[in-house]
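Archive maintenance. Older records in this collection stored only the sequence; we are now back-filling the structure field for every entry so that each record is complete. The fields below show one back-filled record exactly as it appears after the update. Entries are processed alphabetically, and TPM domain-containing protein is next in the queue.

ARCHIVE ENTRY
Title: TPM domain-containing protein
Organism field: Arthrobacter echini
Length field: 293
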Amino acid sequence: MIRSGAELRTAMAGGALLLLALTGCSDSEPASIPEPPAQGNVLDLAEVLTPAEEQEISSLIDERNASTDAARVAVLLVEDADGSIEDYARDVATSWGVGDDGADNGVLILADTGERELRVETADGVREQFSDGDAEDVVTDVLEPAFADEEYAEGLIEAVDQVYLYAEGGEPVPEPVDWVLFGSVAGVSTVVVGGIIGWVVAVSRRRRREADEEIRAAEQADPQLRLTEQQRNAYRSYRYGHRGDDAITNPAIWLPLYIANPALYSGGGGSGASGSSYNGGGGFTGGGASGSY
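Back-filled structure field:
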């Protein structure tokens, strides 16, 4: 049977559409989801944080995770989310398992530095205390101005603090502006904020030195004991969150426990808390808030 030219063109067009459907081609492909950081709760693919700032933010999250089950926060900075930042944040948070299994208490703070977009993605459980309106306040009042001024670490530190504050049932106390005293107060505030940040950094460094000294002492006592860099970082995180009398201060005793249960012995402590924010969490159905700077 000889087909007409019109029939052939119709058949070819139908075949092209079928091939397009089978191969899943589309105008744009979603951005790939990165692996969560091997250690810590911060992944800076945009490279806007110094290693010290990244460690400072991660240690702050470790500390808050050790003191409460109300939230589990993770931070991701990318250069291009390639599409809807809401969809990307939800996919990343779900893939990483941000939060505790069954608690739906995860929060992902995401920044796309290429598109200058921000997102605080919240799981269903944490939204009972940390509402979408609260998330919008964190984005507009904290993250947007800080990122606009390229004060990335400062903005993320304050945002993390506020997320945990809201999740535990509190809220930031608004301070009325007294324009008469604004000039002097601004100077004092700068000193105070700088002092707080300096104190956090000093505490983090001191606890890191203490953990390193314990590792060196254990390795000197047992030449066969050699921790990998990943294990060293996990021990530092564990010791940062465990300061009580029941804390394990000998890496030789800690190591087999860590190998058996990395989530429990890499940070955090009682009541199921863990330094890591990736504990099989879920419940990300679209809660949170977005913004730009």
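Update note: The longest strand covers residues 72-78. Strands lie at 42-44, 72-78, 99-100, 106-112, 117-122, 278-279, 287-292.
Entry marked complete.
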